[in-house]
What does this fold into?
Amino acid sequence: MIYLVISDLHVPTRQSEIPGIFLEILDEVDGVIALGDFVNLDTVLFFQQSTRNFFAVHGNMDEYDVKNYLPDRKLVLISGFTVGLCHGWGSPYGIRKRISELFKEKPQLILYGHTHVPDETSENGILFLNPGSAMKGGSYGLLKIENTEVNFEVKKIEY
It folds into this structure.
């Protein structure tokens, strides 16, 4: 299974539209994992309707209708792995600890956003993955889970 992992799109406040690369690769992935700061509900619905496997949480900059539509955290099972999803909040310092404390059941992977900085860190038995900011000039992730192997590749978004 290969998932497109995105966070911090900020449409329409910081960019006017969804970067074209996502329109190009949606047919090539098995699903989308979105980690908040879409801003508007139209962006959420676009991704939800574009794939059969859509997992998402809201972020701190999302409008109220997005926050009412999506949870702030979510635990999902993907290819046998327990995966926690959360946007994150506050300073980047200590963010992994704050996020991990949200989950009563300890996930094997936690995908998060908020910092706009890609991350792949193993801490206290949890693999933390952050795709960075899905804005032009930013980045996104491709998460491949096969058997017992997890591969996370961060890709740059060209202008």
About this structure: The chain has one domain: 2-156. The first strand starts at residue 2 and ends at 6.
